Amino acid sequence: MSLTSKQYGFDVGGTWVEIRGVTKATNPEWSLVIDDEVVDSQKKTGEFALSGELPGGKMLTAHIDQGSLGNVDVLVTVDGVRVQKLSGFLL
Q: Please, are residues 55 and 40 in contact by the beta-carbon 8 Å criterion?
């Protein structure tokens, strides 16, 4: 377990999806990876979203809420339907 990086991975209808967070100098960098390709990335804390298109055209969105103390909640939706809810910690 690392306090400076976080990686969540899961299958969505036969497509491998990862949400990666890495601590940087000012804000963590979060990336949405679909089938080994980074499709969206932001250096940010607080509430924000990363989005990308799955094969077949459906839109996957990772709603990230990172608190000021490092607590992280991630809600993943496909076309507005919840498929994953994850939590963790990243400094």
A: no
